[in-house]
Design a protein that fits this description.
By secondary structure, the chain is an alpha/beta fold. It folds into 2 domains: about 280 residues, 3-Layer(aba) Sandwich (UDP-N-acetylmuramoyl-L-alanine:D-glutamate ligase), CATH 3.40.1190; about 130 residues, Mur ligase, C-terminal domain (Protein-Tyrosine Phosphatase, Chain A). The strands form 3 sheets. It has an 8-stranded mixed sheet, with helices on both faces. It is globular, with a radius of gyration of 21 Å.
């Protein structure tokens, strides 16, 4: 099996979203020797920010000298990004070899695994083969019934920002969504992103039921010192002048979550010095999150894809792009709350250029263009993402900026197109 055959096999597995539970993942992992039981984890759930938080934690662990696994989704440029060891993504050869190893075990199951369950099993085997000291493990969807939740008690459970997304699966209130995500809390320590009292009560109750120590991120002491496209410098509690290349106020809050998680880990005996912590944060890389792709013209890519992300994006526009004419290069999944999404950023946009992201759930560019006409701005629909990049740049006047957002599924092509022009 080569990597093309492996990816064809992985993507051919049918999702079975209507079948709840972790039984398939547990059975598949049991058939291959339960590699997850050889590993330690920081388990990260949340609606927004969990990828950035996972990447920051992995960067800190690497700076501290630990052999570090990172499991995230979705990917931007290639599938292999989803599982990494010490910042290096899985090779094509090893991805093919592990998939071929697991395939007969998956096919021997009466109830075959879903795609994400299969990918999770591949990742667990990969991390175990590389003898990872710790894995920064991002939840796929929800928490309690997500296939990553087959792990035993993690070193720390982390809950990031909670918002209304995937409501058809997780529930139609923040409290119901929080309950689903709280399912990863099962002893030890848990760190939460600060939210409403009712949401925090959900986590408090879960921690009490599972005898888990609850730690709240410190947002009150965050003080921004400076910011530019190169990054941000800020204080948080007793820690002064922390350097972070990720942009936006929400990333400062995500960092506060990371700091609380690291403090909980060091209290348990993990050796992470202050210098290593700062180095990990200073050198973290997490593409597609208000990422500056080019300075001339200014071209920024952001994977924001729900109303909460759009609120953060609007904050970043006011902070980093104030006064610039903005061309929005955008595409969206048809099942997203796209009207509310665009309403939050439309006042800052000069014109829209629409594209169709590379995903079966994507809304067609022409249909999205008709939706966006309600905002009274010029709209151009493009046949391809490549055409969208060229059109957006050509329509942006001197001193303006292109802002690509709406779906992570188009950012890989956008990043490649912008890079090719440089």
């Amino acid at each position: 099996m080569n990597v093309e055959e492996a990816l064809t096999y992985i993507h051919s597995v049918s999702w079975k979203g209507s079948v709840p539970g972790l039984s398939r993942t547990r059975e598949l992992l049991s058939r291959i020797g339960d590699p997850q039981n050889k590993l330690k984890f920081v388990h990260i759930a949340g609606t927004n920010g969990k990828g950035s938080t996972a990447a920051m934690l992995a960067s800190v662990f690497r700076a501290a000298g630990y052999r570090t696994g990172l499991y995230t989704s979705p990917y931007i440029t290639c599938f292999n990004e989803r599982m990494q060891v010490n910042g290096e993504m899985i090779s094509d050869g090893e991805l093919a070899e592990i998939t071929e190893y697991i395939r007969p075990h998956a096919e021997a199951m009466h109830d075959h695994p879903t795609e994400f369950e299969l990918v999770t099993a591949i990742a667990m085997e990969y991390f175990a083969r590389h003898n990872c000291d710790i894995v920064s493990l991002e939840v796929g969807l929800g928490g309690e019934l997500d296939s990553t939740n087959v792990i035993s008690t993690p070193e720390v459970s982390v809950i990031c920002n909670i918002g209304l997304d995937h409501t058809e699966v997780l529930g139609d209130t923040l409290e119901k969504i929080a309950e689903a995500k709280a399912g990863i809390i099962k002893g030890g320590d848990a760190v939460i992103y600060r939210g409403s009292e009712s949401v925090e009560r959900v986590f408090e109750q879960r921690c009490a039921e599972t005898n888990t120590r609850l730690h709240r991120a410190d947002f009150d002491s965050i003080r921004l010192i400076s910011h530019s496209f190169a990054g941000q410098v800020f204080d948080c509690g007793a820690r002064k002048a922390i350097e972070l290349p990720l942009l936006g106020e929400h990333q400062l809050k995500n960092t506060a979550v990371v700091l609380a998680a690291v403090d909980a880990l060091t209290a348990k005996g993990w050796n992470i010095s202050e210098a290593q912590l700062r180095e990990g944060l200073r050198t973290v890389s997490w593409p597609g999150r208000f990422e500056l792709l080019s300075k001339e013209p200014v071209f920024i890519a952001d994977g924001g894809h729900n109303p909460q992300c759009m609120a953060a994006l609007a904050d970043n526009i006011r902070t980093f792009l104030s006064g610039r004419p903005l061309t929005a290069l955008t595409g969206v999944m048809a099942d997203k709350d796209y009207v509310d999404m665009y309403r939050l950023v439309a006042p800052y946009i000069t014109r829209f250029v629409t594209v169709t992201p590379d995903n079966p759930r994507a809304m067609k560019a022409g249909e999205l263009a008709r939706v966006l006409e309600v905002f009274g701005k010029p709209v151009t629909a493009c046949q391809t993402v490549e055409e969208g990049v060229t059109t957006a740049i050509s329509q942006t006047e001197q001193g303006g900026a292109v802002l690509a957002f709406g779906s992570l599924y188009m950012l890989g092509t956008i990043r490649a197109c912008v890079k090719a022009r440089q």
